[in-house]
Write a structure and sequence with these properties.
Blueprint (H helix, E strand, L loop, with lengths): L7 H4 L17 E4 L9 E7 L6 E3 L2 E4 L7 E3 L6 E3 L1 E8 L10 E8 L18 E11 L5 E11 L4 E10 L5 E4 L5 E3 L4 E9 L4 E5 L4 E6 L17 E9 L9 E10 L5 H28 L2
Antiparallel strand pairs: 1-18, 2-7, 3-4, 4-18, 5-6, 7-17, 8-14, 8-18, 9-10, 9-17, 10-11, 11-12, 11-13, 14-15, 15-16
């Protein structure tokens, strides 16, 4: 699949975000059914084209376009090409650390009937729409590492779950890896999207109710190594994106029932007690060995 510059993965590129994250959120569980006040839980960080068409309606987060087919004229060629739209929100409080195991889920819907609205795309363009969430890390050099899970539909009318992984270098250049390996065709209109992190093995996994979409070892040498320290935190985003395809308000893509859990991080005193306990166990083992050896002299 051709890397698309307006995918959820790419939408994150170009943002130089400083969330001022430090420490660890006290709560270990988070949930939101998209009733109440959205801004208490999520803050908008991308809106293109403005004004925003996303938001909270009838207990769901919805995403649609302004109604037109998104095409533009390339000034270099004079030919029409597709243009994108996107809406992106960051979670206000769920920002787990690299030494915390965590798991999050959300329900995504790409309504049936959207296939019939497929427009006539300019030659060679790739039209799509998708909705889901991402886990992101910015290193000290400004490079961005991102891992996404979404439900989408492509220009051939193919519905798919997709786990994506990519890197955006400081300055805006970006490279996508492993995207096709996380692509799974589906007939689902609605499905659960999941993402979890094993802090012991440093493995980040995108999954749904049917299968594991993709897993990567964030400590493995090579492109998958994120270079995170224990106190570094993931930033969690959700949203929708599309290219060249008008998404009617009556067929808005939606998200619902966000939930997340994170294991508490042991305090420094707990680590000290664990180390002291390990030392005591080792000492007792040596004493037992010495006693056994002495008994047989």
């Amino acid at each position: 699949m051709r890397v698309n510059p307006n995918s959820l993965l790419a939408v994150l590129v170009g943002f130089t975000l400083n969330f001022g994250l430090s420490g660890t959120a006290q709560a270990t569980t988070w949930s939101y059914d998209f009733n109440g006040t959205l801004s208490d839980h999520f803050s908008q960080v991308a809106d293109s084209p403005a004004p925003s068409t996303s938001g909270q309606v009838a207990g769901q987060f919805i995403y649609h376009t302004l109604g037109q087919q998104y095409t533009a004229i390339n000034p270099m060629t004079g030919l029409p090409e597709t243009a994108g739209s996107n809406e992106l929100y960051s979670h206000n409080t769920f920002s787990p650390r690299f030494d915390q195991s965590w798991d999050m889920q959300i329900t995504a819907t790409v309504p049936s009937g959207l296939e019939a609205t497929l427009p006539n795309a300019p030659l060679g363009s790739d039209w799509f729409m998708e909705i889901g969430f991402s886990a992101v890390f910015f290193n000290t050099s400004g490079d961005m590492y991102t891992f996404s899970n979404f439900l989408g539909i492509g220009s051939a009318g193919d519905r798919r779950y997709n786990g994506e992984y990519g890197i955006a270098r400081a300055g805006g250049d970006w490279t996508e890896y492993l995207e096709n390996q996380g692509n799974h065709d589906t007939l689902d209109e609605t499905g659960m999207l999941g993402m979890k992190f094993d802090a012991t093995n440093k493995v980040l996994t995108a999954y749904n109710t049917h299968q594991t979409l993709m897993s990567i070892d964030l400590d493995a040498p090579g492109v998958s190594q994120w270079g995170m320290n224990d106190s570094d935190q993931f930033i969690i985003f959700l949203g929708g994106s599309g290219e060249g395809w008008a998404i009617p308000q009556s067929m808005a893509l939606s998200l619902d029932n966000f939930s997340a859990t994170a294991q508490p991080v042991p305090e420094a005193e707990t680590y000290a007690m664990m180390l002291a306990g390990l030392g005591l166990v080792g000492f007792m083992a040596r004493r037992r060995k010495q006693a056994v050896c002495g008994h047989h002299k």
